[in-house]
Amino acid sequence: MKYDSLQHYRRFAAKLALFLAILLGMDFGAGYLMERLYRNQHRSLYYHSNYAFREAKADLVFFGSSRSRRHYDTMLFERELGLSAYNAGRDGSYIPYHYAVLKSMLSRSKPKLIVLDLLCDEFVKTPAMFQRLSSLLPYYRSTPAVRPLVEMRGPFEKLKLLSRTYPYNSMMLTLVAGAWESPDFAVRSKGYDPLHRDCVSPLTELNAYDHSADLDSVSVALYKSFLTEAKSQGAQVVVVVSPIYRLVRPTPTMKLAQKIAAEAGVPFLDYTQETTYLRHRNYFHDVNHLNLRGSRIFSGEVVNRLRLLEKSGSGQASSDAMAFSTSVTGN
Description:
Layout: H1 2-39, H2 44-54, E1 60-63, H3 66-71, H4 74-81, E2 85-87, H5 95-106, E3 113-117, H6 127-131, H7 147-150, H8 157-160, H9 172-180, H10 185-188, H11 217-232, E4 236-241, H12 252-264, E5 268-270, H13 275-278, H14 292-312, H15 318-329
Helix pairs in contact: 2-5, 4-14, 5-11, 11-12, 12-15
């Protein structure tokens, strides 16, 4: 009887081992296929993330969220400044993502100039901030700088990443489509992807920013590291809060970001209350984004500011950075 029972457990263990082996094999095979599809995207956010993490080498690099992606015309900057340029902005991203891309980029190239476009509430503590780091999951195995950031998503993240398919959950249909489509305009224009509609919202005071909200200490620390590490590699860094079609008071994020930038000797340009843009609703696609017309005007203005920066030799001391930042907001 005991012998039969032992045989039963052995058969069960053998079947379980076979099932797990098949499951692991399927996970590995499907994960390999999805990774190949991901790396061969010809358009969409996946292509731009791939390029930013694995290939991008440019004299001038823009970092930020969708506001970076929509606001900085890379071709205009190349033409006016004589520098190669790339816009690494990604929709819905925050400073942890920007820092990860920076670390990856600095490992293979040394940009001369870096523009970091900051959100008005960049440092506000929200659950979405680190959950959106799912965009970094495909780089967990290949990019060491990504690993500590991804692991902030939760205590079981390392365990989940034993699966080869986990980084690509919910991507399959998009990956298949993106691998066969032709390159879009943003690919040809080096990350710049302008919007075309005119804003229809009236100019009102924006109350969406909670001035009493807690700031995330990790995001603040990563922002400091972004500035210092970029500068240590010889890059001139400029922080910009680009135009918004709302009357908005400086937020705690903006105040702290400007203070840290000044201490690091980094110019901080706040365009949120620039009347050039607030008086022209037709420069905006919606309250948060410039349209094609507005982005080209804004890009031209930033070009002029960067030329002024180069002539003045700013960025070498905090007093220079503060002087440069007030020259914008004081207009």
